[in-house]
Every structure is written in structure tokens, then in C-alpha cells.
Amino acid sequence: AIRITQSPSSLSASTGDRVTITCRASQGISSYLAWYQQKPGKAPKLLIYAASTLQSGVPSRFSGSGSGTDFTLTISCLQSEDFATYYCQQYYSYPWAFGQGTKVEIK
Amino acid sequence: QITLKESGPTLVKPTQTLTLTCTFSGFSLSTSGVGVGWIRQPPGKALEWLALIYWDDDKRYSPSLKSRLTITKDTSKNQVVLTMTNMDPVDTATYYCAHRGAAGLFDPWGQGTLVTVSS
Fold first, then answer.
1. How far, CA to CA in Å, does A3 sit from each of A23, A71, B36, B44, B104?
2. Which one of A32, A94, A99 has the shortest CB-CB distance to B60?
3. How far is A87 from A45, CA to CA, in rounded Å?
4. d(Cα B3, Cα B82) in Å, to the nearest integer?
């Protein structure tokens, strides 16, 4: 099974900051990686798929990059509504797997 | 508009079998490429993929839970059912169902249902 290592597990940032979250797959997954945002008590929401394709309606301050084993989610200018937990997910092969999550907190 | 909603017991006893139903609207599970998956999240922990069923009745399971899981669909009722046998307190979690669309991703998700395993 492909393992996904996500880092950091948490970070503190201020509104307006640029934030970067990374995911590393234990083997190549091409571009079959998605990013989700989850707010407390809510279901995850799809942000990015195919490593870099922004889901419809998602603000352009979110971007994704990478292929193969190393991937990055960047929030270019953190807004108050972006404080949440972010998960990556590989869907290259079964079993699909999620990263351990990154909690973005207010500094 | 695609919507999904999970239903089932909120409390089960250890060793019992859990049956959860995902009732959806806005898509058909007879459409090529479409699927419905189940994902769970223990309190304060990460997401865990459990199972996925496709329009053609292809089924995929998490290897670590495969012996305990069964996923089925009722296309006429727009429902997907997940059963998990031999429940344990470590299975306490919020269980989500989600639509798997053409891009291959889970979008959207249901609101989730918290299942507590306790005697």
C-alpha cells in the first residue's frame, strides 16, 4: 500500500501569510493527488485534484503543485476563513490513502 | 445539485454489526464512472478510507478492514449500504459517505454520522 506522509502536522500563521503544506508518497503516484479542507464539525471539502487543478469555486489563493512523490499545497495570502485542517489524498492505487492532516491555526 | 446523507445507529455495542446507509440525490449510481465511498474519522484524528462501490458493482475495500466490511448498492433507491462486523470501541468515529465523480475524487461528502461503540 502507498503511504502518504504529510507535514507539518500543525502550523501557526497570521492573516496575509503565505502557507505551504507538503505531502510525500512512498512511491510514485503521478499526479493522482487531491487536497481537502476540513473545518471543525464539518465534512471535508475538495480544494484541488490532479495535484494542481483547482476545484470550481475554490479561491485562486489556493494552489497545488508536484508530481511523482512530492506535492505541495500553497495558500498565497491566508484569510481568516482558511484556518482549518488540510488533508492530502492519493487516488493512484487502492487502497486510497489520506495524509495525517495539517492544522492551520491563528498565530 | 449532489447531496448525500448518512443514517444509522449512533450507539452500538462491542461485537455488534454496524449498518450504515448513504442516501443520495443529484446523480445516478448507474452512470458510468460514478461511485460512492465511505470514509471515517475517529474523534480528533485523521481521515481513513474504508470502501468504494462503482456503478458497475466493482467494490474496493481497505485491506486492514476488508474482512469486516461489506458495501452494497440499491440503484433504484439511490442508496449505498456499508456493514461493518464485530465492532470495537476503536471503531468509534464519524462515518462519511461521498460521491466519486468523473475526476475520481470524493466530492461532495455527506455531513457525517457519529457512531460510538460502547457497552
1. 10, 13, 23, 20, 19
2. A94
3. 10
4. 18
Could you report the per-residue pLDDT of A20-71, keeping only the tens digit for each? 999 999 999 999 999 999 999 999 999 999 999 999 999 999 999 999 999 9
pLDDT (tens digit, 9 = 90+) per residue, B4-48?
999 999 999 999 999 999 999 999 999 999 999 999 999 999 999
3-state secondary structure chain A: CCCEEEECCEEEECCCCCEEEEEEECCCCCCCEEEEEECCCCCCEEEEECCCEECCCCCCCEEEEEECCEEEEEECCCCHHHCCEEEEEECCCCCCEECCCEEEEEC
> Of the candidates A91, A95, A101, which has its C-beta nearest B104's C-beta?
A91
A101/B47 Cβ within 8 A? yes
Q: Which residue of A has its CA nearest to B44?
A: A40
Residue of B nearest to A102 (CA): B46
Cell numbers that stand for A82 in this block = 482558511
Nearest to A35 by CA among A101, A106, A104, A81: A101
- All residues of chain B having their beta carbon less than 8 Å from the beta carbon of residue A32 are 104
